Amino acid sequence: MSSFFPSRTVALYMARLFLVRTFAILAGLVLVLQALDLLSESGKILSVASNGDAQVWRYVSLRAPQIVARFLPFSVLLGTILTLITMNQNSEIIALKAGGLSAHQVLAPLVVASLGVAGLSFVFNDAVVAPGTATLNAWQKVNYQPLPLDRGDRSNVWVRADNNLIEADQIRGRGNAAVLGGVTVYERSADGSLTGLIYGRQGRREGEGWRIAPVQRFDVASGAVARSPSMIVGRGVTPDQFTLASVDADGLSFLALRAAIGDLKDAGRPTKALEGALWHKLSGPLSAVLMPLLGAVAAFGIARSGQLFVRAVIGMALGFTYFVADNFALAMGNLGAYPPFLAAWAPFLLFLLIGEAVLLRTEE
């Protein structure tokens, strides 16, 4: 390790430059993009009579982490290129290579710092972004109306029971402890025509069905509305049909998503797309480690040669091509064209080899 980092001072200096520039770029991107996003959403939020400034700030607190998670790898790429260009222009890279450091040794402090960024990104995504995404999705589905249930709950789930359709606005808990909120039963005849609507504020598992209360039933034929304290609906509908009907990978942490995939497998449901998303929760943050390697082309070459700008453009092109390939592979995985592991890891491994090949071919 001491031979790979021959100078602790230089390593700390480069890591500090890299981290300061990366997070400065990230802060600027988040500020601009959040302002633009808020311009389009604030009108929808404030159109609800009960909403005000507090709800606008709540939206910002839920949306900003998503922007941070999405653009952190971009910021690492731009921070890498800016750091290396600056050092190249100041002849610091030339001094390091003249001192006997290889190209890999020059990049080593940035790679180690990016490993720390990747670990921070994974924890941030798991602890902040996932629950915030679940809450924001549920809030948007009710058009920014007050949410009746806590964060992280599933929303807007449809289940078929014989000829009837059951809609649950919100669901919390799992198994027999699942609680339904805003339950609407669409009663249909054998030919599919609507015969009645049953609405219950809350539903709980009871026997082979679900007891909802209080109940209002609208009869389509007569137009009459009947009320009762409670009613059993959805006989034969199991809890997993509600809790697993809508699994949002972005709204679940790594462990929660893995548990949901296990439940789906036990229920005999397809899980390939979710398995790809599970692997991507690891490969996504780890993409930060690739950025110093892909942007390394900007570090080398003589600044006075006039090719520094071209090298920076090549570094950015390699980085952005990776993001395109990553999104394409993930989309193919969701369609079932790629195996889950390949969809999540193939772009990472491919561009790791490309970055190494470019570095070895041009500098080593």
TrEMBL record:
The keyword Membrane applies. It is a multi-pass membrane protein. Keywords: Cell membrane, Membrane, Transmembrane, Transmembrane helix. It is found in: Cell membrane. The chain crosses the membrane at residues 12-36, 67-85, 106-124, 308-325, 337-360. InterPro entries: LptG (IPR030923), LptG/LptF_permease (IPR005495). Its main location: membrane. NCBIfam families: LptG_lptG (TIGR04408). This is LPS export ABC transporter permease LptG. It comes from Sphingomonas corticis.
